[in-house]
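Hi all, long-time lurker, first post. I run a small reading group and we've been trying to get comfortable going from sequence to structure in the token notation. Rather than ask abstract questions, I figured I'd post a concrete chain and ask someone more experienced to write out its structure so we can walk through it together at our next meeting. Sequence below, copied exactly:
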Amino acid sequence: MKKIVFAFSFFAIIYGTSAQGGHDIRINFKNCKDTVMYLAFYQFDKSYLADTCKKVVKGNIVFKGPKTLDKGVYYLVSQDKARYFDFFISDNNQKIVMSTDSADLVKNLKCTTSKENDDFFTYIKFITAKNKEYGEVKSKTRGMNSKDSAAFMLEKGKLLNETVMAYESKFFEEHKGTFVGDVINLKTEKEAKEIPKASNGRPDSLYSYMYYKAHFWDGVNFQDDGIMRTPFFADKLKKYFNNVIIQNPDSVSVEIDRLMTKTKTGTMMQKLLIAHFLFTYESSKLMGFDKVFVHVIDKYIRTGMAKEVYDEKTIEKIKERGDILKPLLLGSMAPDLLMIDTIGHKQVAKMGFDTVKTSQGATKLYYDNAQNLAQLFVSLYGVKTDYLALVFWDVDCGHCKTEIPKLLEEYHALKKEGYDIKVVAMYTQHEYEKWRKYVAENKLDWINLYDGVHINNLKEKYDIYSTPVIYILDKNKRIKAKRIGTEQVKDIVKQMEKEYKAEKK
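-- Answer (accepted) --
Happy to help. Here is the structure in token form:
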């Protein structure tokens, strides 16, 4: 079984436009050598084509069509796919006239039909000039030693940064309530200006963090789809969830719900956020964050909120994935397994389980031999130990041939240190002789089992889409860690030991 990764597979047209009004974008681009131009727009962390000017005549570029373009930040793209400059299109401004000159693209940017765009171009000119100034300042450090260079740049860079921040703050205040103001707001950091002193006399870092987190989304309208059609929204969202909030599955789920309540039902913003959170936490490499993925499924997929994001078939697959993962979340009681050991194989083979061809045949054999099988089964819950390493592996798996011997060493080392640990190794295939031979030759002196009667469905029950897979269970068979490397086993067991001792106090 392959792991399913649910990316942005909208079946709705994500660059859809309305059919009223139409758009008419005209650009006079002096000294332009392109013969074809493209109009593109941002949408979250990707870009999409909105229109094409198939023939540029003497630098005159025209994008005209019967459809009204969606509100957002658009940009001009050359025939070689180079990005020239950004500009704004709003719902009530679809007829725009601009001009520039390739001799100095930014300096010559003008818009005669949109004050919002002309003000934005003024902003771009200021930022470009300050970036150039920063480069000139940096060039003066050539020949300095690293200490003097760092001190020089710290002083000069701070002044430049303060100048830029002051300009952006003033620009935002002057354009508050406009789309360009909303976009500048997205890239403005909301840091506390007056920070109280902590008990040690230094600025209170906790206050700074709490203020920053509380004001991070100030002024961001999650009901405006235009906000996610900008070059800043995606980075801001990722920064918040990766660097600002506490990296704990429950905390992340709370923050997702908090942001989702700000969205409006049926908007592109809502659809995109559902898809983003689903994809991000289904494919997260952080152990335990599949809990967030399951939360998103339960809260936003099963409730029907994603019916315009994915088709019915995909939604069913997402639900199935959630059904598999939910019993395997950290802290859950591990699903029990009724397995057969190397000794019990001879008897189940006589019953016909080695040669049965269909699931119906296996089911019949099971019920015909239920009483005898009950004496042969080794139950996961019947293994008594403080620490249980549950490993799923295959004799023919190349990675297993590397990791199983390492796990054996870790097991022996922990036993030697006095830890009450056992390893239950689940062979995922049914080639008994090959398995028995490997166990004997490699002296795997732990509990070796396999699904000899075909009733456990290991792949579904424990999400085994590749091998080896290691779970760590506590003495009550609760899942404490999963999908870990052999090098992590010892540290996790020792951490569990500390937890046991703390519970006893």
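A couple of things your group might point at:
Residues 138 and 153 are 7 Å apart (CA to CA).
The longest helix spans residues 146-174.
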